[in-house]
Amino acid sequence: MEHGAIVSTTSASGVDAPNVPVGKLILVSSIAAGVQFGWALQLSLLTPYVQTLGVPHVWSSFIWLCGPLSGLLVQPTVGYFSDRCTSKFGRRRPFIVSGAVLVAVAVFLIGFAADMGRIFGDSATEKMKPRAVALFVVGFWMLDVANNTLQGPCRAFLADLCGSNHSKISASNALFSFFMAVGNVLGYAAGSYNKLYKILPFTKTEACDIYCANLKMCFICSILFLIILTTIAVTIVKETPITQEDVDNGSESMPFFGQLCSSLKTLPKPMWILFAVTALNWIGWFPFTLYDTDWMGREIYGGNPDGNAAQAKLYDQGVSAGSLGLMVYAVTLGFMSLAIEPMAKCLGHVKRVWGLGNLVLAICLALMVVVTKIADKARGAAVQPPESNIKASAIAIFAVLGIPQATKSHQQSDITTIYSPNTISMSNIFEGLSLGLLNVSICIPQMFVAVVVGPLDAAFGGGNLPGFVFGAIVAAASAICAFTILPSSARKNA
After folding, report:
1. What's the whole-model pTM score?
2. C-alpha angle 200/205/209, rounded to 5°?
């Protein structure tokens, strides 16, 4: 569930940045690997984990409301205040360090929720663990807030370092995307290895089974990785503090949300169309984001976290296989990200690449339904893992999904360079406002899906397929809109 920041071509103060070595850009960009490691763990492990604490499948999607809410409110707000921070340590570094500390606290709450729930009175025999769930939800929401607190200022820091140097802006965006791919691969790889807990055997306790212990170890690795990268970056890469005079000269007189509303009112038609296509794309994606590994555990492996020991074991195996599929997906994403520009040149315009990406997403979601039916028929009444060809087909779908994910990421990073209208001068507003404009079209669709998809799945039997069918239909609509109504040139149609 990543939230992209729009990077302007000047520093937020409107002053060209000094000639910063590429090595420093690499250090700051590397923080993205630590952030994305945590995102990958969230996407692959936490929906299955919360069900082991007793939260029904139908309610698990509501917990994910924290992602779009924090993306809509926290990241642009943090970006706005970091633009105006006059700390002697710089504008961005205090927020980056604060975000890393919050991540550590959140990870502790999530990983040790079952143990602390038992200490506070959860029953050892009851399936529902209300105290553990409460601690998990607090930690889960805090983790999303922390990641957004960290990621926005990190990208804005890169924009400050690059100034108006277009080649370095391009290089920093590429570096950030590369390290995000590295973090994805590491996170999904950690989630797919179900014996990681043996490194620290004490993580397995009476209240925390093997799956829970593995999750603990994954998050311990994540926080150590993030802290090391963050410490190196903020120690070596210095910032020049700004004064209140710089803030007053570079900012608008109205508050952040006033600027956001004012900018939305003046947006021309091409930008609204672009936001609409982006919104449809995210509605198509979010059912997969919510239930990717859960689908592997339930529908492909035939497991059930609420069932008997054999069914629960199968479910855990399926979740691990799903994490492996997501790792392959991340590798595809990394390679495809390099191919987007050549594809856009061959097809004539980047909007056609977006349209093809949305079409591939719709097809993949539809194929997930087909593979589910084949797996169910082959399994029959037996409680056993799927045949190798069925597992390979499921992982192949994960791999292909890296293609539309690459086009989606490219769409976000290109939103200002291709469709930014003359009425919005990115040299006159700060990174926080840019984040707000983009996140409106990303986070509201996510909130809609988080509220709708759980009850939708429950209404049709409690599995994941209704959500995937819904996502496929909306993704197809997004593809049609991208091909037909998205203008080739925003300025010609403004």
Report:
1. 0.73
2. 95
